[in-house]
Amino acid sequence: MQNSTLAVAAVAAATVLLLSGCVATASDAASTPSATSAPSLDSALRTDLEAALDEGFAASGMPGVIVGVWIPGEEEWVSARGVADVESGDPMSRENQQKIGSITKTIVSTVMLQVIGEPEFDVSLDDTLDRWYPDFPEASAITVRMLLNHSSGTGEAGRAQVDRICSAPYAIPTSDELIAVSAATPRADFAPGEGFEYANTNYFLLGGILEQVTGEDLATLIHDRITEPFGMERSRFAPDGKVAAPLTHGYSGFCPDLGDPADTLDWSNGESWAGGAMVSTLDDLHAWGEALGEGAGVTPELQVARYADVAAIGDGAAYGLGTGLELDVETGCVISVTHAGAEPGYGSNLAYYPATGAVFAILGNGDGGTGDATTEVLNALGPVLRSAVLGSTTEPCAAPWG
């Protein structure tokens, strides 16, 4: 669940959401990296990363966090702090499954682009929403492309969405119910295609379109097209919010009447559906980051469109067809392909770096948001990571579509 201020977050430049951080006592706990034959990561870089993680974790207020960096040709860096369960004291672990929020949008958008690229399905980027939802406001002017890059102007429920979660945290509304609520939400103050307004509504509509076009439910589409082919064995589209052991508990200050912080492990992902209902692990996010960077079954033409058909956010940040982008403001080169995610009690971030093929992932169990929680860790790690994941600045621009 993420509000309209969230779009994307790169390692050093995050544009993320409002959610207040929770405070819990946690002891440091390192995760043991898997065996690798790659050359060892530079010892000075490792030392600097560990120190930055200490700093960011201390500032975050989260009970626990785990971070991974994978640079081709080098040893991985996976490190954890704190606990996955404040009652048992179990440490954070790379095997733990948790909710990943709006990183889901990178997956749903990829399924949509795959389907558009397959001739047996009658759908294109320029089709308008009235084909499927004729009564939705401005349906005849909103295209699939606009839904993918949040330029449609559909409204985001924001505070009302949080209030619904707090009043019924275990409820699982239907997609039609979510779309009906979205239709009644006031639009942004620009015409379709003329601005940027991050809204889960766009992805509720995309999920509904996918189900109508393919005749398959969204969970099946994601399993058959993403999690199974890319080896994401511990990832699932989970509107029910169920997280399988080994797992990480989430701790949220969203709903004071339910506890402060409340353990949100068993809360549903129903309010997020196609906008944020995935659960995953650190290693599965690594696999997905690599797949996303390599195209993930999207045709070359649509892969170009994914990073060219952008809605500008500002200061080098933009939103493509389902992914956030950090751009070099002088050259327009894509520095990172990225997305943040959050559900109550959970924060996450994933980034792919075209210049080196590096992947960065972070999972935490506190509320993520601007200036706190997961963002604090990102801000601490960013300056240390940039030179390692970006490669030489003298090399030509590396396009993420190859």
Overall morphology: globular
Instruction: Please report which band the strand proportion falls in: under 5%, 5-15%, 15-25%, 25-35%, 35-45% or over 45%.
Output: 15-25%
> Which segments are poorly predicted (pLDDT under 50) over 5 or more consecutive residues?
2-36
Rg result: 20 Å
Query: Mean pLDDT, rounded to whole units?
Result: 88
Number of strands: 15
CATH uppermost class: Alpha Beta
**SS element count, helices:** 10
Model description:
The chain is an alpha+beta fold. It has one domain: DD-peptidase/beta-lactamase superfamily (Beta-lactamase), CATH 3.40.710.10. Helices cover 29% and strands 16% of the residues. It is built from ten helices and 15 strands. The protein has an eight-stranded antiparallel sheet with strand order 4-3-15-14-13-12-11-10, with helices on both faces. β11 and β12 form a beta hairpin. It starts with 7 loop residues before the first strand and ends in a 12-residue tail after the last helix. 55% of the residues are buried.
Could you give a quick summary of the protein structure above?
This protein is of the alpha+beta class.
Task: Note the main attributes of this structure.
402 residues; alpha+beta; Beta-lactamase; eight-stranded antiparallel beta sheet; three-stranded antiparallel beta sheet; 10 helices; 15 strands
How is the secondary structure organized here?
Elements: E1 8-9, E2 14-15, H1 43-60, E3 64-70, E4 77-82, E5 98-101, H2 104-116, H3 144-148, H4 159-167, H5 175-183, H6 200-214, H7 218-227, E6 236-237, E7 251-252, E8 262-263, E9 278-280, H8 282-293, H9 300-308, E10 311-314, E11 317-319, E12 324-327, E13 334-343, E14 346-353, E15 358-364, H10 374-390
Antiparallel strand pairs: 1-2, 3-4, 3-15, 5-9, 6-9, 7-8, 10-11, 11-12, 12-13, 13-14, 14-15
